[in-house]
Amino acid sequence: MTISNFDMLFYTLAFIVPGFIMSAVISMFLPQKQEQVQTIFVRFLTFSCLNYAVWSWLFYILQRAGFVKDHPYWIAAIWVSIILVSPIVIGVIIGFASKKQWLRGILQRLGFNPVHIIPTAWDYKFYNTPTPQWVIITLKDGSTVAGYYGGNSFASSEGPERDIFIEKVYKIPEDNSQQWEDVEGSQGILIKSDMIKHIEFLL
Predict the structure, then answer these.
(1) What is the predicted pLDDT for the residue at 159?
(2) pTM score > 0.85 for this model?
(3) Which of 38, 55, 81, 172 to pair with 92, CA 20 to 30 A apart?
(4) What is the C-alpha to C-alpha distance for residues 56 and 192, in angstroms, rounded to an integer?
(5) pLDDT exceeds cutoff 60 at 1
């Protein structure tokens, strides 16, 4: 039995694309751990199977009712919805539930201590930090940078590149008794991860 190019395209579309879409949507809610290609591929397949499991009842009804042969255009529309639209909806639900830690809370009440879904403390803090925030960044050379972490600021979640962009920089008076002073002409500052010693968050 040979597999044509069309069959290969169909199987790829049917078993990889839904999982890829679902994974991409979930990653909008939570940072993803660095994984090998094989693990990512298995995750896509697992998410695709989950997507089809949700709609298995519909497949059964359509087959028994003879709807497939009599309404080919409707079947095409249903397939497009299941492959492209359904993973988005399911991904949003899973991502939102994961961000709220509903499943983790249930497992902890049952006496389990599951591994946290967010890979690092850096990701956990910045994904759960409401903006704006005032921050003091202490660098490895002992100097400090005071800034305003607002809606135009950004903290990277890509692998080891834990850099941060602060949209507004301030000077801290030596006696720390006065308000922070604006740094004239500053349009923010980008600090690389290998320069950071620690970050203090202020109310």
Answers:
(1) 65
(2) no
(3) 38
(4) 49
(5) no
